[in-house]
Amino acid sequence: MDTPAEIKKALREALGINPNLAITATVVSVNGNTCSIKLASELVLTDVRLCATISDEPDMMVIKPKVGSEVIAMSQTGKLDGLFIVKVDAVDNITFKKEDFEIIIDGQTKKVTIKNGTANLGQLMGNLIDTIVSAQILTPQGPGTISPATQTQLTNIKTMFNALLNNV
């Protein structure tokens, strides 16, 4: 064996470098934190990870690609059973979790969920507006309510929040 080849081999082993090429594929399906992809040769590969590592940790960020879109996958092991997605162009949804804090950007519903273990932003905004609409105002003439015009405006604001924020 020649010296340059031996040096390259020694460097790969010492640094844990595993040269492999990126694979462009089409997403066939998404299931949890994995997907199935179809290569240009029509070969379908299953259990391709959407995260670089396998972990039971609750803290994670997952970008789920849209079915039918193209992605780029690479392998940590140099084998097909070690594939994970490294590039997504068409996103179906994005989930970020840190302990009990969660943000979901859902391309299907076109809504955002922001919540933690005790509160959900969508529910909170709805409850706030409902409370304001039903508020009683104390006046020298006795209790009163918010004007019907203001109630209508608040209802419209609540409708707009509900179109953007998931309250589930």
Please state the structural category: alpha+beta
The coarse overall form would be elongated
Q: Got a strand count?
A: 11
Q: What is the N-to-C succession of helices and strands?
A: HEEEEEEEEEHEEH
Strand ordering within the main sheet: 3-2-1-5-6
Q: In percent terms, what proportion of residues is strand?
A: 35-45%
CA radius of gyration is 26 Å
The N- and C-terminal alpha carbons lie at a distance of: 64 Å
Number of helices: 3
Poorly predicted regions are none
- What is the makeup of the main sheet? 5 strands, antiparallel
What is the helix fraction of residues, given as a range?
25-40%
How confident overall, as mean pLDDT? 89
- By oligomeric state, this entry counts as single chain
Textual characterization of the structure:
- This protein is α+β, with helices and mostly antiparallel strands and 168 residues long.
- The protein has 3 helices and 11 strands, in the order αβββββββββαββα.
- The strands form 3 sheets. It has a 5-stranded antiparallel beta sheet, with no helix packed on it. Strands 4-7-8-9 form a 4-stranded antiparallel beta sheet.
- Helix 2 packs antiparallel against helix 3.
- It is elongated.
